[in-house]
Design a protein that fits this description.
Elements: H1 2-14, H2 21-36, H3 50-57
Length: 58
């Protein structure tokens, strides 16, 4: 969770890219659904992204 909040603070808040509550929700959703769940490598998955890991298991 610390890395998530660190990203949130650096990328969204400090960069000054947020303009509205809706934009904030959209950016956070995109980070979680697009990057974190599909791209980010996880140590529990042998440092593979979830999509890559799932394709090797089927």
């Amino acid at each position: 969770m610390e890395s998530f909040f660190s990203w949130l603070k650096v990328e969204l808040v400090s960069a000054g890219t947020l303009k509205s509550e809706e934009q904030t929700k959209s950016e956070v959703f995109e980070y979680i659904e697009v990057f974190y769940h599909r791209v980010r490598r996880h140590s529990a998955l042998g440092y593979m992204g979830p999509v890559e890991y799932g394709s090797k298991c089927t």
